[in-house]
User: Which sequence fits this backbone?
């Protein structure tokens, strides 16, 4: 059992609006006074790690040190088996344009082109998983990690306009619709007492709630 987090002010260490919306939905039932790194105008740290854990820690510590408050970060990405785990920790980088903005339609096309080049055409050949690592940093510098994985397969063309990032091309195991076709409650909805979360972020949050908040 990890260190417990007392209710109070909490910084969500992200500038990503889609990710922030999901994290707010998940933390909402627990009574924290939540703000975000983006809302506080904090600079984005360099995410130069080669693992989700490293980058999650960088973001959480940067937000904690700048704000003096406990900070919860998320580093997540899509790993495709036929692409040797790519894009993985570089998931967002595959969408980056020269001006620093991100084009996820381009990123999804890049993944599809590489899958076609690898001869991956059937669902069994197009398996992968979304991974999420949450890091909670306390003001004394102590960090804890909570990891969630959502396995599935990739489809083409993209389906749905909900969610963000690569959601329209990812169908989680046991489902026929992509994350892009699911509303927020279906994709990442999770509340105390609910057994199974669906998305990678919700699964990581389920572990966070159990270990850091003492909530099942």
Assistant:
């Amino acid at each position: 059992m990890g260190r417990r987090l007392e209710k109070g002010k909490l910084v969500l260490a992200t500038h990503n609006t889609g990710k922030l919306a999901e994290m707010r939905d998940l933390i909402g039932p627990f009574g924290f006074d939540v703000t975000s790194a983006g809302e506080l105008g904090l600079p984005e740290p360099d995410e130069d790690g080669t693992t989700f854990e490293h980058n999650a820690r960088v973001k959480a510590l940067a937000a904690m040190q700048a704000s003096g408050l406990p900070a919860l970060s998320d580093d997540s990405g899509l790993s495709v088996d036929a692409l040797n785990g790519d894009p993985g920790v570089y998931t967002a980088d595959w969408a980056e344009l020269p001006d620093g903005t991100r084009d996820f339609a381009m990123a999804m096309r890049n993944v599809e082109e590489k899958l076609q080049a690898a001869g991956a055409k059937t669902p069994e050949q197009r398996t992968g998983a979304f991974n999420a690592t949450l890091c909670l940093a306390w003001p004394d510098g102590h960090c804890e990690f909570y990891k969630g994985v959502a396995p599935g397969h990739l489809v083409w063309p993209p389906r749905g306009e909900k969610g963000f990032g690569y959601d329209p091309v990812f169908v989680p195991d046991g489902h026929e619709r992509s994350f892009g076709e699911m509303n927020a409650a279906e994709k990442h909805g999770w509340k105390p007492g609910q057994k199974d979360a669906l998305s990678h972020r919700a699964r990581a949050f389920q572990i966070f709630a159990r270990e850091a908040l003492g909530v099942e």
